[in-house]
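A reminder from the course coordinator: this example appears on the midterm review sheet, so study it carefully.

Given structure:
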């Protein structure tokens, strides 16, 4: 897996990702402490609102940002967004009112909503070989999981010698180093083939996404992932400390076990995907999530929760990690930022539904009813994914073009059969506005 780090451009981008993630992790810890200082016992409500603002920014800003990204070189855009995030983190220690947290968090997350899809869309252009790209996806998954483990430990160690306000400085440094690493390499910036209006550019990614059967299946899988993930992220503390009467260290261990399951699958997944289709792996992972979420309704003790959380982590990684391969396969290079932005927005829209549901249903009806509710959502999503994403999903599709002149150069692409039809790698674009029906 680490062989892809021999590519200098990818190595610098991966380092930028890891360092920015660590900075974000420190920010999360510091923000919680700041909220407690400003709001006391209402800190949970403040953080909950901040989390909702984050999701709204992700859902609303990503497609718009991708439309403007076409007008800028990718490297310049990524560096500018890192600098914006560093600037926001620089202001956070001076916040004195709760509303100021909300404003700064929106700006920070809006910048992240523009940064992440653009960054993700750059990697397949840097690593055009599918095996290398698959390994890069697994490394990215590992980076996210390690951040969730390392950042709290690093923050705890730093808080023994500095105040939490100084954690914001660590975040600033993280974003600045990330920007410097991006500056140190030359990034491809495919240009759109034709000029497009702002509406076309804003909606293009979502239109491509919803017109592609495998991506409609991916959207359903996103919902299964969000349902199971919300159970773990929102309710682990409730299970461990309220239901089982344990302490914060036990909560941290449970979350670490969840991350450990995810990391283990991320390590073995590249080799696994060499021998099984993406659809098989992702549906299997999503099915594991649905079943495990249902089992969570009857957890008798902490000793049972830990292996179940490990299994959920494994299913989480298997269902989610290959998604980048589907997005790459379903778009031209110039459309990838828009398509990755659509995935970013639509997947976070799923979280925007399941996060509050996991919290409200758990508080109102109890953990068992909450788990059953989320399991029903996950199970329904798996069934929808299996239906929306055909089992036979070839990359090369035979199709016709009604009204396309015989002399059009597009007829020279792929293999023609002499019956006004030809076959090539099929993606939704200006010449292919809908998916052809199976013959």
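Designed residues:
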């Amino acid at each position: 897996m680490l062989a892809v780090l021999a590519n200098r451009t990818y190595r610098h981008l991966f380092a930028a990702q890891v360092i920015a993630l660590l900075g974000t992790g420190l920010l999360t810890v510091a923000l919680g402490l700041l909220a407690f200082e400003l709001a006391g016992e209402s800190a949970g409500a403040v953080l909950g609102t901040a989390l909702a603002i984050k999701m709204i920014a992700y859902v609303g800003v990503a497609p718009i940002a991708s439309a403007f990204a076409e007008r800028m070189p990718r490297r310049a855009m990524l560096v500018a967004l890192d600098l914006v995030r560093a600037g926001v983190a620089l202001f956070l220690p001076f916040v004195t009112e709760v509303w100021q947290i909300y404003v700064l968090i929106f700006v920070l997350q809006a910048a992240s909503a523009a940064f992440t899809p653009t960054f993700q869309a750059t990697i397949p252009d840097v690593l055009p070989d599918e095996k290398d790209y698959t390994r890069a996806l697994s490394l990215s998954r590992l980076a996210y999981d390690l951040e969730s483990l390392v950042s709290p430990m690093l923050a705890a160690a730093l808080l023994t010698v500095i105040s939490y306000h100084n954690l914001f400085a660590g975040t600033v440094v993280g974003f600045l180093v990330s920007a410097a690493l991006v500056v140190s390499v030359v990034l491809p910036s495919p240009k759109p083939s034709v000029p497009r209006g702002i509406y076309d550019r804003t909606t293009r990614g979502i239109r491509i996404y919803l017109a592609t059967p495998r991506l409609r299946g991916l959207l359903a899988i996103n919902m299964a992932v969000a349902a199971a993930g919300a159970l773990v992220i929102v309710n682990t503390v409730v299970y461990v400390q309220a239901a089982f009467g344990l302490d914060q260290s036990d909560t941290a261990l449970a979350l670490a076990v969840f991350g450990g399951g995810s990391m283990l699958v991320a390590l073995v997944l590249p080799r696994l995907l060499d021998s099984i289709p993406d659809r098989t792996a992702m549906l299997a992972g999503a099915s594991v999530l649905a079943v495990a979420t249902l089992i969570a309704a009857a957890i008798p003790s902490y000793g049972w929760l830990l292996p179940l959380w490990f299994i959920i982590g494994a299913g989480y990684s298997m269902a989610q990690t290959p998604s980048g391969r589907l997005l790459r396969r379903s778009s031209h290079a110039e459309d990838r930022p828009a398509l990755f932005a659509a995935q970013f927005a639509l997947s976070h829209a799923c979280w925007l539904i399941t996060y509050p549901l996991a919290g409200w249903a758990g508080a109102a009806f109890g953990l068992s009813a909450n788990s059953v509710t989320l399991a029903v959502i996950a199970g329904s999503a798996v069934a929808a994914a299996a239906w929306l994403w055909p089992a036979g999903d070839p990359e090369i599709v035979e199709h016709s073009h009604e009204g396309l002149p015989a002399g059009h150069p597009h007829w020279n692409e792929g293999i023609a059969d002499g019956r006004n039809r030809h076959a090539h790698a099929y993606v939704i674009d200006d010449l292919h506005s809908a998916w052809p029906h199976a013959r």
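The mean pLDDT is 83. The first strand starts at residue 396 and ends at 400.
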